[in-house]
Design goal:
6 helices, single chain, Nonspecific Lipid-transfer Protein, Chain A, five-stranded mixed sheet, alpha+beta
């Protein structure tokens, strides 16, 4: 099984998140607080989680029953594809429409219509790619 979303991977993602102003700083401006689960389509629970307070990732690790505000799922192949070539707004819309990206919890439509959240959401895929690139190096 993949090392995506393991405790170590999520810790690296937390650090990368906090080092990306277009993500952490932009979300801080709107007081964004959430617990986000990341995992694979068809599995009962997400593999990992990220807790965000005022835009900054304050905790991350393997999912262990945390109450989620967002639960994002996709196939391992799609996650890896998006980490290599982060999707833009159109590609994310297609992924959502074709159910390649599923929101088991959270409101994609409301989020994507709010530019204060949509931009950072799109940026989060590029940040995942930084973790993946470091892992492959």
């Amino acid at each position: 099984m993949s090392d995506l979303f393991t405790s170590d991977w999520m810790a690296a993602f937390q650090a990368a998140w906090n080092n990306e102003p277009e993500l952490a700083d932009e979300l801080a401006k709107i007081g964004f607080n959430s617990v986000i689960g990341y995992g694979f389509d068809g599995e009962a629970n997400p593999a990992g989680f990220l807790k965000v307070e005022n835009g900054k990732a304050v905790a991350a690790g393997s999912y262990n029953g945390e109450e989620l505000n967002w639960d994002l799922r996709a196939s391992e192949a799609d996650w890896k594809k998006w980490m290599v070539k982060p999707p833009g707004m159109m590609a994310l819309g297609m992924a959502y429409t074709t159910r390649k990206l599923k929101f088991n919890k959270g409101d994609y439509s409301a989020m994507i219509k709010d530019p204060r959240m949509a931009g950072p959401f799109i940026k989060s895929f590029a940040v995942m790619g930084q973790v993946k690139a470091a892992e492959l190096a």
